[in-house]
Amino acid sequence: MPWKDYDLGAWRDALLPLGEEPWCQALFDRVEAAYAQGSPAVYPPREQLFTALRLTPPEAVRCVVVGQDPYHEAGQAHGLAFSVQEGVRMPPSLRNIYKELQSDLGVTPPSSGTLTGWAEQGVLLLNNVLTVYDGQAGSHKGWGWEQFTTAVLRQTVLLPQPVAYLLWGRAAQTKAALVSPERSPYPRLVLQSNHPSPLSASRGFFGSKPFSQVNAFLTAEGSTPIDWGHTR
Fold first, then answer.
1. What whole-number distance in Å separates Cα of residue 70 and Cα of residue 81?
2. Of 96, 100, 129, 219, which sits with the fewest C-beta atoms within 10 Å of its C-beta?
3. Which active-site residues does the annotation give?
4. What band does 200 get if pLDDT is binned at 50, 70 and 90?
5. Dihedral (C-alpha) 65, 167, 203, 227: value to the nearest 10 degrees?
6. Could you report how far apart the first and last alpha carbons of the chain are, in Å?
């Protein structure tokens, strides 16, 4: 599929010119070749690659959650960081996110691992890398996605509304300087913590209280807080 034919939603005008950049052309040539090869499978499915952009248009963004790369097991990834398809067993990282949500706000952990409800409330769920091979975490690191997601985040820096950023894990934290409050004349909040995976959640994710801090920031800036318990 040519780059111009991808559905970027309301981000299209801002991002389509990237296709003229050599690095972006090389990225999508490689991504398309991987999808076409078919084995190993590439996640998320091609038609769900930009779900995050379609569900959360620029004017709606109130919070940006940045993760690492998509889940790498069949049927899980659908284009939203940390989210899984309806009916799919909840991955450990998402279970830990829900544990922190309960600890932070007293919200009963949702039964579904689908986070479309967050996306539709203005939470842009963006991984640093947007594709992965089946069973191979981090396998598309260095393909050029890091530059692409940097370009998306640059667009969020320009938005006039208050925006909070949650950078979870080392890959996400590489974006910290880019989204620093000093980069924007508009209200910004940047919170960094360890990744919610079982390997690191107990070393700084648990107890970080990201959800209450984001809502306190939004409320203080006259914006509507996010109903974090509404996930779908």
1. 7
2. 219
3. 69
4. confident
5. -30
6. 30
Single-letter amino acid code for the residue at 72: H
CB 35 within 8 A of CB 48: no
By residue count, the chain amounts to 232
Q: Which carries the bigger pLDDT value, residue 232 or residue 94?
A: 94
Cα separation, 186 vs 71, whole angstroms: 33
Distance CA(124)–CA(138), nearest Å, equals 21
Average pLDDT, rounded, for the chain: 94
Q: What is the CA radius of gyration of the chain?
A: 17
- Within 8 A by CB and 6+ apart from 8, the residues are 15, 16, 50, 53, 54
pTM surpassing 0.90?
Answer: yes
User: DSSP class of residue 18?
Assistant: G
> Residues 28, 22: contact at Cβ < 8 Å?
no
Binning pLDDT at 50, 70 and 90, where does residue 104 land? Answer: very high
